[in-house]
TrEMBL record:
Protein name: Holliday junction branch migration complex subunit RuvB
Catalysed reaction, written as an equation: ATP + H2O = ADP + phosphate + H(+)
Keyword list, A-Z: ATP-binding, Cytoplasm, DNA damage, DNA recombination, DNA repair, DNA-binding, Helicase, Hydrolase, Nucleotide-binding
The species this protein was found in: Nocardioides guangzhouensis
Entry similarity comment: Belongs to the RuvB family.
Region (Small ATPAse domain (RuvB-S)): 181-251
Length: 334
């Protein structure tokens, strides 16, 4: 049978779900977040109350959804999933909130992309466990207050700074997830290889880990692509050589930069002679959404010293020029 794009996509998602750690103990790295969150959960369990609302921030693929699922799992509570973009009207949120049972965990991914009206409804629900359901329209509309049972909201956002202050303040616990170190990604690759029954050498694993952009989701994805390559073009074992050849084929470079990352640096250096250039202009030049450049590519490029944010715009560092194999212009200093 022919595999359609949709099948392939849901297959990928099924594998991703299978690789998700199911308890805090299984989570690799994020030592401090694990400890703090463990304490919040244990204390709530001891008191027999729903824990404080939790805000998780950090770039995509670092484990926010995984932690939300673990929170629900550790509390033995059902997890209800939604996302900011899915809540376009306050009514969408009212419907979700009125269906909540005591102790439920409500996960709102990309919470910074909720509509303003929904945001205001959420403040009230978080603080007073109440929603005002508006019946009718115009001057005749009435708000009927509805009590909702205590629940725990877990919000995820790529950047906590994108949330309005009043919303941020209503979370009792905030955790920021940082990019993972190569040795942590190495452990994740080994763990996933075990679960997927992939044979890999220590060097093969380290190579994948080192090119994973500090991101567990990418480490798992690269492992699957390298496994494909090992099975089709080699003897099935993920060795250093197999990993290198496969990653070259998939255009992931030695520093882990992918096409988007390189596209951003390339536009910055070649089209804008290193900047400074505004974010929107840069996004247009690479043919991407402003948010994608800002929330996906930039944090990694900044952290790895390829790009700097200045008040006048984005600038390429000497490392960026060197990485692209270009001469560093004389006026560019580290
Ligand atoms: P996010 O919600 O931040 O985008 P996810 O929670 O969906 O990220 O994580 C993406 C994938 O990465 C998951 O399938 C999971 O297997 C893996 N992953 C994330 N964090 C960890 C971790 N700390 N340890 C092991 N695997 C992880």
């Amino acid at each position: 049978a022919r595999l359609t794009a949709v099948d392939a996509d849901s297959d990928e998602r099924a594998i991703e779900a299978a690789l998700r750690p199911r308890s805090l103990a299984e989570v690799v790295g994020q030592q401090r977040v694990r400890e703090q969150l463990g304490l919040v959960l244990d204390a709530a369990k001891a008191r027999g109350r729903a824990p404080d609302h939790v805000l998780l921030s950090g770039p995509p693929g670092l484990g926010k959804t995984t932690l939300a699922m673990i929170i629900a799992g550790e509390l033995g509570a059902p997890l209800r999933l939604t996302s900011g973009p899915a809540i376009t009207h306050a009514g969408d949120l009212a419907a979700i909130l009125s269906g909540i049972s005591e102790g439920d965990v409500l996960f709102v991914d990309e919470i910074h992309r909720m509509s303003r009206a929904a945001e205001e409804m959420l403040y009230l629900a978080m603080e007073d466990f109440r929603v005002d359901v508006v019946i009718g329209k115009g001057p005749g509309a009435t708000a009927i207050p509805l009590d909702i049972p205590p629940f725990t909201l877990v919000g995820a956002t790529t950047r906590a700074g994108l949330l309005p202050g009043p919303l941020r303040d209503r979370f009792g616990f905030t955790a920021h997830l940082e990019y993972y170190e190569p040795d942590e990604l190495d452990r994740i690759v080994h763990r996933s290889a075990g679960l997927l029954d992939v044979h890999l050498t220590a060097e093969g694993s380290a190579e994948i880990a080192g090119r994973s952009r500090g991101t567990p989701r990418i480490a798992n994805r690269l492992l699957r692509r390298v496994r494909d390559y090992a099975q089709v073009r080699a003897d099935g074992t993920v060795s250093l050589d197999v990993a290198r050849r496969a990653l070259e084929l998939y255009e992931v470079d030695e520093q882990g930069l992918d096409r988007l990352d390189r596209g951003v640096l390339d536009a910055l250096c070649r089209r804008f002679t290193g900047g400074p250039v505004g974010l929107s202009t840069l996004a247009v030049a690479v043919g991407e959404e402003r948010e994608t450049v800002e929330e996906v590519a930039e944090p990694f490029l900044v952290r790895n010293g390829f790009l700097a944010r200045t008040p006048r715009g984005r600038v390429a560092t000497p490392a960026a020029w060197e990485h692209l194999g270009l001469d560093v212009p004389r006026n560019v200093t580290g």
